[in-house]
Amino acid sequence: MRKSAVVARSSANWPGEVSHAHRARSAVRTVVLGGGVAANKALRSALEAACTGQGLKFHAAKMAYCTDNAAMIAALGYHQLKAGEIAGLYVDAYASAT
Fold first, then answer.
1. Does residue 97 sit in helix, strand or coil?
2. For position 22, what pLDDT does the model report?
3. 23-75 pLDDT, tens digit each
């Protein structure tokens, strides 16, 4: 069974966190970057350099697949509004791994 670690948070010290994650989980050998944030060329470059410095493999999704979800969210909102599904101002957003 392959072991993996996912670090999904914003931090001013993320290259150091790559190093920390590698030391803390010696089974981690590969870092994969995807999603809208992966379109950030400076982030891609810096993360690749940090991984190379730690002896980790680095893979980033092709730029064509690193898009922002704003258009999809807006389209869904349009259809929900059209169907009369309106939420109050009390609604909060929660991330989910499922």
1. coil
2. 53
3. 555 678 899 998 888 888 999 999 999 999 989 999 999 988 887 778 788 88
State residue 37 phi and psi, 5-degree precision: -65, -25
- CA 11-53-40 angle, to 5 degrees, is 45
Which DSSP category does 6 fall into?
Answer: -
Q: Which residues pair with 59 in a beta bridge?
A: 32
**Spatial CB neighbours of 49, under 8 Å, sequence gap ≥ 6:** 15
Pairing status of strand 57-60 against strand 30-33: parallel
One-letter amino acid at 84 equals G
CA atoms of 70 and 67, how far apart (whole Å):
9
Q: Which string of DSSP letters, residue by residue, matches 18-86?
A: HHHHHHH-TT--EEEE-SGGGG-HHHHHHHHHHHHHTT-EEEE--GGG---SHHHHHHHHHHHHHTT--
